Amino acid sequence: MTRRRKVLVAVAAGLASVSLGLAGTNAAGAQANPNGLKLIKTKTSLLGKHYWYQQTFKGLPVVNGYYAKHVGKNGNVEIADGRDAVPANLDVSAKVAPASAAQSANAAVTARAQRDAAPNKSLVRQPAATSSATQLAVIGGPNARLVWNVTSRSTEGVSRSLVDAKTGSVVESKVISDNIDGRGSVFDPNPVVSEQNEKLTDMNDKNQDALFLAQKNVILRNLDGSGKLDGSYVNIKEAKGGIAQSKTNTFVYQRANDKFEQVMVYYHINQTQEYIQKLGFTDVNNESQDFSVDTYADDNSFYDPSTDMITTGEGGVDDAEDAEVIWHEYGHAIQDDVVPGFGESEQAGAIGEGFGDYWAVTNSVPVSKGFNLPCVMDWDATSYTTDEPHCLRRTDGTKTTDDIDGEVHDDGEIWSRALWDIQQSLGRTKADKLILEATFFYDPDTSFAGAAQDTVQAARLMYGKAAAQTVTDAFKARKIL
After folding, report:
1. Which one of 201, 240, 339, 456 is CB 3.0 to 4.6 Å from 294, fit for a cystine?
2. pTM for the model
3. Prior bond to 142 cis, omega within 30?
4. Looking at residue 151, which CATH number applies to its domain?
5. pLDDT tens, 101-113?
């Protein structure tokens, strides 16, 4: 469901209008909003400030109800209004207990996970889902109702289920975590790339001479001095085998040691956040990102927006051995931080996957020596591919919107190719800067075309007409514009 409505507001009167709009009228002078708005995030980008509001009704959040105000440095204001109408007389007293709602949600998630489990991934019955949070909320629109918003964890990752608080029926249940199918391995960025050797294999996580040679001594910057792998941009919150600790802040392990993956997570996340800040951004996931390392038995890693946690799996190649897996998942955390609730539509989800792949590849540029750059997750893919080069996906594919099939990872290849073409034309630094800047203007339920238009506009404002045309051409080649 898309309710995108953008309004450009004049400098002086417009600012006053928007200010009044958040208190009672919108920028276009519409009727007062009876449901309320709650400021949940303020972000600063290169072109201005961005204010994100959660729509509420009688103090409860309205599912997917948002309102955003983008204030440019030139004084122009852009409004994105994604509110849903809620009847004023809607009863917000729940008849169904939260424990009962959680049970219904977990049953629905478990049934879907068992039904959709790939035969070659699991030969046994999938474990039941468990719930981590239950909160009252409101669904707006023509079928407005009170619901329990339940988040559950299963073999699919993290799911959100909406359970009718009056009847107990499951209204909606979907996976909200951004994930990839089992990945693994990374040094800098991973052994396949650093050794330029497609013949390397995992050998069930054993130490190997070839992999020892691929290890690189690095400086771990921005540690907090606690003796753990915690710092300004990374927090290893939990990990298989326990949290790595060192009184001397020396974390040197061979890859068979589970703590090796913790070091990889810390180093590569710290590196990418330092790069983001060198681009000029001080408000793009500028926090200590929580990680759960090697705690998921399947060949899968995912970002959970409900807890702001990235979890890495250990099926096949341990996912956190491959920096491109780490960077991909961090891409999801970036977008969720910049645009609250990002990924509500299928195409927005595909943009998330495509951006994650692009972010993995662009971070590989400085260390790959040009080796098969468009190949995503070369090391992780050795555990489930036979063709060489080993790639989960590529950023130089030939897909266009004619090839959309409704699966976000597949459709993400359309978006990642467009971004890769932009980088090839503008250069890495300029491309990454404008791609991050454009993200601030995305709607949570944006389309390919909507996000492309935001990117073209960012290119025009940052680099001029010629760059904007280059970006436009890249999206036209994918039939996005």
Report:
1. 240
2. 0.82
3. no
4. 3.10.450
5. 999 999 999 888 7
